[in-house]
Design brief:
Elements: H1 11-20, H2 26-41, E1 89-94, E2 97-103, H3 105-109, E3 113-116, H4 117-123, H5 125-134, H6 143-151, E4 154-160, E5 170-176, E6 181-191, E7 196-205, E8 212-222, E9 227-234, E10 240-250, E11 255-262, E12 267-276, E13 282-291, E14 296-305, E15 311-320, E16 325-334, E17 341-351, E18 357-366, E19 371-381, H7 384-391, H8 397-415, H9 419-432
Parallel strand pairs: 1-5, 4-6, 5-7, 6-8, 7-9, 8-10, 9-11, 10-12, 11-13, 12-14, 13-15, 14-16, 15-17, 16-18, 17-19
Antiparallel strand pairs: 1-2, 3-4
């Protein structure tokens, strides 16, 4: 039976997937089997679990989705993040399987690996095994992580050898097409010592009314003295369930700038972690969230200081319309070895409707005694006097609201060093802003 003939994610579908992926290394097949066994034995998270107490996933039914085949004929809008950008490489994926993969030949000669993970593990299994064995994201964290570890069909891999600098950005887009389609994907990024790269990743749906499922993982390793700029834009339609485990490990003197854009999904539950594993490591995390309708987006962020003299700076901003809801749970954890830590986290919320709701739960867990760790959160509504001021100078009410929302996000935009990303996020948010009801 082909992998596409089995529906759902039961044992039959898993066996069909293994048959489809029979060219993979034996060590990977064994990892899949172990994860699948754990998946079958584990329970689904419930609201009795601390991470899920503000997120109700009872309407999610895995059996309604299946590992649908890719389609090379999919038609969607031009990718937002790569518009007008001179790229060093790109990967296009549909329903969790890469259909296009390109890389500058000069980079390939230097040992750079960039492409669809499904084919890369077949072509470069020995080189990639160490990344899998490291288990940056635990394959047994919860039932969603187990399903991803067992049944991933594709994704993206970026491997940059020691001291190789990639000047132009790399781009990857994942698309969903068809009712009940799924994207079970894994992203692995490894920058060796002294390497440097910029990776832009985004998602899209070809149909605004088709229900879809994304269950993904992102594993990032920034080596000693390496620098990574990573942008991840979640732009599914509002009928897609989005679950993800994302973690970066930054080694000594490494630098990471990680920007998250969360605009789509019916329900999103994302765990985003950064571990500063070597002394003098640095991480800047930027988050932009915009919700409308009945969307529910939950992002749990974790800044883990494992080594001394490290710095982390997290800024998440959310604007909410209609009856949508966001949940941000942030934690700064400092181990006993993390002396001279400098860590900050902040979450700001702009309420564009009385019926919207934003939950902000910052936290600190500090075991060292020589640190500077602070956090903060604000929530507020648009000031009517600002709207009046703009309208008195010729703006329509909706134009005034759009300008105020853009200004709210400007602090995050100013931190993003890639001009095309700033413009794309601003444009995408601007299209979603509705006129505010008069008070």
């Amino acid at each position: 039976m082909s992998a596409t003939a089995a529906s759902g994610f039961g044992a039959e579908a898993f066996e069909a997937l293994k048959q489809e992926r029979s060219a993979e290394p034996q060590w990977l097949a064994e990892r899949r089997d172990q994860a699948w066994k754990a998946f079958e034995e584990a329970r689904w998270p419930t609201r009795s679990d601390e991470e899920w107490m503000r997120t109700d996933s009872r309407l999610f039914k895995l059996e309604k989705f299946s590992p649908a085949p890719a389609s090379a004929t999919i038609e969607v809008e031009t990718p937002l993040l790569s518009s007008g950008v001179d790229l060093a490489g790109r990967v296009d994926s549909v329903n969790g399987r890469a259909i296009t993969s390109e890389l500058d030949p000069g980079l390939a000669e230097k040992g750079v690996i960039f492409g669809g993970l499904g084919q890369a593990v077949i072509d470069h299994g020995d080189e990639l095994r160490a990344a899998f064995d490291r288990e940056v994201v635990s394959p047994t964290y919860d039932k969603f992580a187990m399903l991803n570890a067992a049944a991933w069909t594709g994704g993206v891999v970026l491997y940059v050898p020691r001291n190789v600098h990639i000047e132009k950005p790399l781009h990857a887009i994942s698309r969903l097409t068809g009712e009940g389609a799924s994207d079970i994907s894994k992203t692995i990024v490894v920058l060796e010592e002294g390497a440097e790269a910029t990776l832009l990743m985004e998602t899209a749906s070809d149909n605004e009314t088709a229900a879809g499922l994304h269950n993904g993982s992102i594993e990032i390793v920034v080596g000693r003295g390496a620098k990574l700029r990573y942008v991840n834009l979640q732009n599914w339609n509002n009928r897609t369930w989005h679950f993800a485990h994302q973690k970066a490990c930054v080694e000594r003197e490494g630098q990471l700038q990680w920007t998250i854009g969360a605009l789509g999904a019916r329900l999103a539950k994302v765990n985003q972690q950064v571990a500063l594993a070597g002394s003098d490591a640095e991480a800047q995390v930027n988050g932009v969230m915009f919700t409308q309708g009945k969307q529910h987006l939950c992002y749990n962020t974790h800044q883990h200081h494992e080594a001394p003299y490290c710095r982390s700076d997290l800024l998440y901003k959310a604007a909410l319309q209609d009856t949508s809801r966001t949940v941000w749970r942030g934690m700064i954890k400092v181990d006993e070895a993390g002396q001279r830590t400098d860590a900050y986290q902040r979450n700001d919320n702009l309420m564009l409707a009385k019926t919207a709701r934003a939950d902000s739960i910052p936290g600190l867990e500090i075991e060292a005694d020589d640190v500077r760790c602070t956090h903060g959160s604000t929530s507020g509504r648009v000031d009517d006097s600002q709207i009046f001021y703009a309208m008195a100078r010729g703006f329509t009410r909706q134009e005034a609201v759009r300008m105020i929302v853009t200004g709210f996000f400007q602090q995050v935009f100013d931190r993003i060093t890639i001009e095309s990303v700033r413009e794309a996020l601003g444009e995408a948010i601007g299209k979603r802003v509705q006129d505010l009801p008069t008070q």
